[in-house]
Amino acid sequence: MTDSSPTRSAVSAAAPAWRPRILAFLCNWCSYAGADLAGVSRLQYPANIRVIRVPCSGRVNPMFILRALQQGLDGVLISGCHPGDCHYLTGNYYARRRFLMLRQLLEFCGIEEGRVQFSWVSASEGQKFAEVIRDVTERVRELGPATRMVKHAWDLPENLEEILPEASATGCSCGASSHDH
Ligand code: FES
Asked: What are 157-178's pLDDT values in tens digits?
């Protein structure tokens, strides 16, 4: 039986043509603003990321990440405010704890460690945002295309909220809503 899916070595041979598709969940108050600053500052970083702005990194349900992998994204980044800076006080601590648990589940499912990554980027760290995106892209590129959980390898819709409609809903799943703050 032959396997027609691209292997890591095939990807390496074909590189640098292949560019991973990466979904980034950015918290509105820090990382999204950091991305904005990187753009305004005209910093160079790979253009292969698609962004979903979330109110807080604590809003990112692990199911969103699993669904993104099922939808054919090659990598996922979750980025929020630094510890102690969360607009909702503890949302990023929830996010970090969930991420650590999810990482074990992903490892159990055979998903490589670098496919889902987590970072802290503040609103003033445009440079760091660009570096994070470069690092994430490079790590995922080395891993090659995701094949493990993919259910739908179709072209992604322009508006990613179509596949993750609940992701950008207001409020943080730590229990606080934006109206409480
Ligand atoms: Fe940025 Fe909570 S508001 S991580």
From this structure: 666 666 566 665 555 555 544 4
Pocket test for ligand 1, best of 59, 86, 177 (most atoms within 8 A of CB): 86
How confident is the model over 11-24, as pLDDT tens digits? 555 455 788 999 99
Q: Quick one: DSSP state of residue 6?
A: P
Q: Is the CB of 86 under 6 A from ligand 1?
A: yes
Residues 6+ apart with CB under 8 A from 127: 38, 41, 43
CATH of 19-150 among 3.40.50, 3.40.1130, 1.25.40, 1.10.10: 3.40.50
pTM exceeds 0.90: no
For ligand 1, the distance from its centroid to the CA atom of residue 11, given in whole angstroms, is 36
Structure confidence by residue, pLDDT tens digits, 111-131: 999 999 999 999 999 999 999
CA 160 to ligand 1 center in whole angstroms: 21
- Select from 25, 27, 77 the residue to mutate for testing ligand 1; criterion: most ligand atoms less than 8 Å from CB: 27
Q: Vertex 77, ends 46 and 5: CA angle to 5°? A: 75
